[in-house]
Design goal:
Distance between the termini: 31 Å
Largest sheet: 8 strands, parallel
Bound molecules: pyridoxal-5'-phosphate
Radius of gyration: 17 Å
Order of helices and strands: HEHEHEHEHEHEHEHEHH
Low-confidence stretches: none
Structural class: alpha/beta
Strand order of the largest sheet: 7-6-5-4-3-2-1-8
CATH superfamily: Alanine racemase
CATH architecture: Alpha-Beta Barrel
Helix content: 40-55%
Number of helices: 10
Oligomer: single chain
Number of strands: 8
CATH class: Alpha Beta
Mean pLDDT: 94
Number of domains: 1
Length: about 240
């Protein structure tokens, strides 16, 4: 398994390098984020000890379970799942530095309250539902600018950009329009010059479509299966949860 992970990381980094070359973008503009849902702490550690620095969970429960085993290995933790307000305190406790899935105002308010009471700040990305699929979370593209504006008013939250999951399709050309929507929203928000808003990050692209995402401007690609192997549960299990 260890050899598989190292080999897969080489392949992924190679794919990222080629995609950057093709798109005429500098390699250091794109970061690889490892989506570690269902992956054991041991396997995550293998990746962290071999050049990887950025990981993310979808569920607070998994974040909690792996925390002790990973806390002494240097890394940066993001959160990419649907976040319930009653789990916010755990997000802070387990050292998440960026919530990529901020998609609504009540979550924003509660996150802010908690951050104020702990004297902390948090990086966030606004998650946009670019595929119009019922099953996915994220703010509707038409409401993304407005939500960004509202979130920007909370002093504890540092908006760094946008995130999307994109259409779940094996045909990357069908996913491309989703990435374009995110890029266009980024440009629109930049043009509005909203105080307290940075629009540097575009978190988009996964195992199957990272090349397309990089062509369309991704700065963070989120990869799970292509590094750690197939998961038992389908993605809908993670993307629909209301638990
Ligand atoms: C699982 C997951 C990924 C990675 O998906 P793979 O197809 O395994 O690469 C990316 N983003 C989110 C939000 C995920 O839940």
């Amino acid at each position: 398994m260890k050899e598989d992970i190292l080999h897969n990381l080489e392949i992924i980094n190679d794919r990222i390098r080629k995609a950057c070359e093709k798109a005429g973008r500098p390699l250091d503009e794109v970061r690889l984020l490892l989506a570690t849902k269902t992956v054991s702490a041991e396997h995550i550690k293998t990746a962290l000890e071999n050049g990887q620095t950025l990981i993310a969970e979808n569920r607070v429960q998994e974040l909690k379970e792996k925390y002790d085993e990973l806390k002494d290995t240097q890394h940066e933790n993001h959160f990419i799942g649907h976040l319930q307000t009653n789990k916010i305190k755990d997000i802070l406790k387990y050292d998440v530095v960026c919530v990529q899935s901020l998609d609504r105002l009540d979550l924003t308010e509660r996150l802010h309250q908690r951050l104020v009471s702990e004297g902390k700040t948090m990086e966030v990305l606004i998650q946009v539902n670019t595929s119009a699929e019922e099953s996915k979370f994220g703010v509707h593209p038409n409401e993304a600018v407005e939500l960004t504006r509202k979130v920007s008013e909370f002093s504890t939250l540092k908006i760094k950009g946008l995130m999307t999951i994109g259409l779940f399709s094996a045909e990357t050309e069908k996913v491309r329009p989703c990435f374009k929507i995110l890029k266009n929203l980024q440009q629109e928000i930049i043009s509005q010059n909203i105080p307290n808003v940075e629009m540097k990050e575009l978190s988009m692209g996964m195992s199957g479509d990272l090349e397309t995402a990089i062509e369309e401007g991704a700065t963070i690609v989120r990869v799970g299966t292509a590094v750690f192997g197939a998961r038992v549960h389908p993605d809908s299990f993670y993307w629909n949860e209301r638990v």
